Amino acid sequence: MTKIQIRKAAGTWVVRSGGAVLGESANALELSEGDLAPVIYFPRGDIATALLDRSDKTTHCADKGDASYFSIVNKSTVTDNAVWSYENPNDAVAEIKDHLAFVVSDSVKVEQI
């Protein structure tokens, strides 16, 4: 089992896709897992979920549980499976329930502002 640490992310964080701001939060969480780069989890209420379309993709993590995926749909592009959420996470990571994380790419940016 990989050691997972969750803490409040310092400052305010923003996520952008295709130039559009999908959300901004001063209540984001930072999840660190082993040697992986930390991941910022945004409260669902701070994200423009109207731009997200649930996809059929799911994954399973022994430490966190089952993840559901969403695509980002904006005026000009669709970024497939760019967002994930543990809707019923394992008890050890219960804090990430009702949070969304983003696959950072050329079209999706997560930044501290």
Which fold name fills CATH's third level, the topology? Metal Binding Protein, Guanine Nucleotide Exchange Factor, Chain A
Give the terminus-to-terminus CA distance: 33 Å
**Approximate shape:** globular
Number of helices: 0
- The level 1 CATH classification is Mainly Beta
Rg for CA atoms: 13 Å
Largest sheet: 7 strands, antiparallel
Estimate the mean pLDDT confidence: 94
Low-confidence stretches: none
Strand order within the widest sheet? 1-4-5-9-8-7-6
Put the structure in a nutshell.
This protein has no helices and 10 strands. It is mainly beta and 113 residues long.
Report on this model:
The protein has strands spanning 4-8, 13-17, 20-25, 29-33, 39-43, 52-61, 65-73, 78-85, 99-102, 108-112. The protein has one domain (4-112): Metal Binding Protein, Guanine Nucleotide Exchange Factor, Chain A (Beta Complex). Helices cover 0% and strands 55% of the residues. It has a 7-stranded antiparallel beta sheet with strand order 1-4-5-9-8-7-6, with no helix packed on it. A 3-stranded antiparallel beta sheet has the order 3-2-10, with no helix packed on it. It is built from no helices and 10 strands. It is mainly beta and 113 residues long. A hairpin with a 2-residue loop joins strand 2 and strand 3. The chain is globular, with a radius of gyration of 13 Å.
